[in-house]
Specification:
Strand 1 and strand 2 form a beta hairpin. This protein is an alpha+beta fold. Helix content is 48%, strand content 17%. Helix 14 packs across helix 23.
């Protein structure tokens, strides 16, 4: 320990005496550590962070009951009664709680602050299974979830309490309205807890038996129990998830065989031994690809960084060769010298890791408005102790590994010859190794720059794709009269009144109804076929929207033939023999080819009966959910014609700012029904941008990391040429004294850079051609082997390296021969 402390003190003094070298090494390594820490913080945030408020999370997990079908695995419902039977056959499982949702509902606290709230309907043992202790009040009791209707009680999140109530004492016992129904708050969840899924979060929990009541289902349509598709489990002490999975599987299989009318014999239990990952596994393939991409690029940047730091340490060891020779002559062992060099590198790594965390915070801040996926906002991205530990560990390991080769090279010496030459400047220090490290930096950087160029071209191609509509100035508002318990006529009257009052606002140009606007994140599908199609012909599955007639004018979608729906077409009489539809141009071509479909009759297959509809118009094609790719065939029907699980929503085109419009519309909503929330989905242009936000985030992050690598390569080559110039000053002085011109010295000093550029570009292009095939799935309209990308990267990198090498080479060409001859 004494020897180690001595090495630490000596290393600190040595580094302090060389502030230029120390700052360069720390800043260089910090760039790579910052890139790696930023990537790890993303991984930590998606995969590793625990669910807040859950005690002993290592013993909790997720359970999904499914059954195999011809289309893969489909959800299989398990009621609370069936759950009890399965639980008795699973001694490894201490608790198994059902959950359904989260489901968006209307909610109001009575203070005019109605809003949409995510509600999860759960079994009474939900909080005890998760071991979540309410911050105030209590959780659910068995009688709260007793059939047929349970108790109208709720537990709210601490976040919702802070929004609705000014103090903790005011929450418990208060009455709130959920979908217009009075509900009593009995508890407040522990701070931070919003359910076992970190990305599909809830703000309110209610007993499962209240689900039918909250959804306004009549007694005749209510099953005896809510069928749950998802469960959370808690293991008994000493039990394993493998034991629990096997026992749950045997339990559901035995139950299914005993009563095939309730459960399929193919039902199976799947256990995920961790909370918080449900959304991740729902999009595992996409997120896997994105995380691998980020980590791969960050790893390459870290590799460039290590090569750069290794070169810097090689320079330092060469400059301090006389010191090493003297210490060896005085009896120091080679191991002691290597240990000291490793200590010095570790100190550089610690400082670089700390600075890398600061850099990672800055990088994460640049992207906090972006989304990894639609449901993965970067706003929650944080640097916690895991990221801090990773950054410091990565810094120390990177610095030590980068310093091992220089340490071993610098500790080798021939005492006789080296002592004689200790007073002279020497150009040794493993020149081939230094050149090889510089070539590695250039090659890896070229691959990253080429990838960044391909991603930039992809974003340009996305931006040039015509949407088929104009989202600028359009804001969409979500309102749910049906969820509030309104009957169809009340809902129609409310929407008509709301629509007319919004249209009267200053600056509002148009107001329209639409079930699902484009780029809303979800779609509604329908089926359609020609009337004269043969009976065996399968109907075409298409995306569909319910709209009012002014929707096309609102969205600036051209009406190619015919006329839009008229006001009398909305909420048509169910007894009307012939419905009306509008086809997009692509759907019209798919159904009728070159023939004119206007006035033709199509058939809309329904659950109850097939409905016939007349084609009254053909409109332009639009991109519905993706910026790239082909346009979707689209079917438009009038609002109220047929069933739809969504909307209608209110689309508003206005000249006023979106924030001002939102406040005015919500004020109108409060005057019509204070318990009915009207929530804005924001400007439609933002929804369109969100469609490529995931790619934009990754592409910009890769571009930033590629810029880091380019900078590091330029710094590395600059350091190499500068060191070469310093060690050859005497040679250059002799040459100039013997008549060499400045351009000859300039060419001689810069020649190593030309070798590095040539080898680096050849190796880099070969590596880029291999690596870009892994990003093919992320590109749009651009080939992964686009020669322009490789040429652009080579020119950009070559120019940066030449500029970096020209600066010290030019300094060599201006050396004074007499000063250089007296340098030693």
């Amino acid at each position: 320990m004494d020897a180690l402390l001595q090495d630490v003190r000596y290393a600190l003094r040595t580094l302090a005496r060389s502030p230029g070298f120390t700052a360069t090494a720390v800043l260089t390594l910090a760039l790579g550590i910052g890139a790696a820490a930023s990537g790890f913080s993303l991984l930590n945030w998606v995969l590793l962070r625990p669910v807040p408020g859950v005690r002993e999370p290592s013993r909790t997990g997720l359970v999904a009951f499914t059954e195999r079908s011809g289309q893969g695995y489909m959800p299989s419902s398990v009621t609370a009664t069936q759950r009890d039977l399965i639980l008795r056959a699973s001694p490894a499982v201490r608790g198994l709680a059902g959950r359904d949702g989260p489901i968006e509902t209307n909610a109001a606290s009575g203070n005019g602050n109605a809003r949409r709230v995510s509600v999860e309907f759960v079994t009474s043992d939900y909080f005890t299974t998760l071991s979540v202790v309410p911050a105030e009040g209590r959780g659910f009791l068995p009688e709260d979830d007793a059939p047929p209707m349970g108790s109208r009680v709720a537990v709210i999140s601490d976040r919702l309490r802070q929004e609705w109530f000014t103090g903790r004492a005011e929450a418990v016992g208060r009455s709130v309205r959920v979908n217009g129904i009075p509900v009593t708050v009995i508890g407040v969840a522990s701070p931070g807890f919003r359910g076992p899924d970190l990305f599909h979060t809830a703000d309110m929990w209610m007993p499962g038996a209240t689900y039918w009541d909250i959804q306004h289902l009549s007694a005749a349509r209510r099953p005896s129990q809510l069928p749950y598709y998802r469960y959370v489990l808690r293991l008994r002490p000493g039990a394993s998830f493998d034991e629990a999975a096997a026992q749950l599987q045997r339990g559901i299989h035995t139950l299914a065989l005993a009563d095939t009318t309730q459960l399929s014999p193919r039902a199976t239990a799947s256990v995920l031994p961790r909370l918080g990952l449900e959304a991740f596994y729902g999009a595992k393939e996409i997120i896997d690809h994105q995380l691998v991409l980020v980590f791969g690029v960050a790893g390459l940047v870290l590799l460039v960084t290590c090569a750069n730091v290794a070169n810097l340490l090689l320079f330092r060891r060469a400059q301090r060769r006389s010191d090493v020779v003297v210490r060896l002559a005085l009896g120091a062992s080679r191991g002691r010298l290597v240990r000291y060099a490793t200590t010095e590198s570790a100190l550089i790594g610690i400082a670089s890791g700390a600075l890398g965390v600061v850099l990672a915070l800055w990088v994460n801040g640049l992207f906090h408005h972006y989304r990894l996926l639609r449901f993965l906002s970067m706003e929650g991205l944080r640097i916690d102790w895991r990221v801090l530990g990773f950054a410091l560990t990565a810094g120390v390991l990177s610095a030590v590994l980068a310093g091992l080769i220089p340490a071993f090279v610098g500790s080798r010496a021939d005492l006789g010859s080296d002592l004689k030459a200790s007073g002279q400047t020497q150009a040794d220090g493993a020149p081939l190794l230094r050149t090889g490290l510089a070539v590695l930096q250039v090659a890896v950087s070229l691959s990253l720059v080429a990838g960044g160029y391909l991603f930039a071209r992809t974003l340009q191609r996305y931006a040039r794709v015509p949407l088929g509509f104009d989202p600028a100035g359009v804001t969409v508002f979500q309102v749910e009269p049906k969820a509030q318990g309104y009957d169809p006529q009340q809902g129609q009257n409310y929407l008509r009144a709301l629509r007319s009052r919004i249209a009267a606002l200053p600056g509002v140009e148009q107001v329209s109804l639409v079930s699902l606007p484009p780029f809303f994140g979800i779609t509604h599908s329908d089926q359609v076929r020609r009337l004269d199609a043969p009976p065996e012909a399968r109907p075409e599955l298409v995306a569909s929207q319910q709209i009012s007639g002014d929707y096309f004018s609102l969205m600036r979608i051209p009406v190619l033939r015919g006329a839009p729906f008229q006001p009398g077409d909305l909420w048509p009489d169910s007894g009307r023999a012939l419905d009306k539809v509008i086809l997009s141009a692509k759907l019209a071509r798919n159904l009728y080819g070159p023939a004119d479909p206007l006035g033709q009759i199509v058939v809309l297959p329904r659950f109850q009966e097939d409905r016939s509809a007349e084609v009254v118009a053909i409109v332009g094609d639009v991109h519905w959910s993706e910026r790239g790719g082909d346009v979707e065939p689209m079917l438009y029907t009038p609002v109220g014609q047929g069933e739809t699980p969504y909307g209608p929503m209110i689309g508003v085109r206005s000249r006023v700012a979106a924030g001002t419009l939102e406040r005015e519309v919500q004020e109108i909503g409060r005057s019509l029904d204070p318990d009915m929330p009207i929530e804005s989905n924001g400007p439609l242009s933002e929804s369109v941008a969100t469609a490529v936000a995931s790619e934009s985030l990754l592409f910009r992050l890769v571009g930033l990391l590629a810029a880091f690598a380019l900078l590091l390569s330029a710094v590395g080559v600059y350091s190499l040429i500068a060191y070469g110039v310093t060690t050859r000053l005497r040679e250059f002085g002799v040459r100039m004294a013997l008549g060499a011109e400045a351009r000859d010295i300039l060419r001689t000093a810069a020649r190593p850079a030309l070798v590095i550029i040539g080898l680096g570009i050849v190796c880099g292009i070969a590596g880029a051609m291999y690596l870009t095939r892994f990003i093919k799935a992320s590109l749009y309209g651009v080939s992964p082997l686009d020669p322009v990308a490789f040429v652009t990267a080579a020119v950009l990198l070559g120019a940066a390296v030449l500029l970096a090498s020209w600066i010290p080479a030019r300094r060599a060409s201006k050396v004074d021969p007499m000063v250089a001859l007296r340098y030693e």
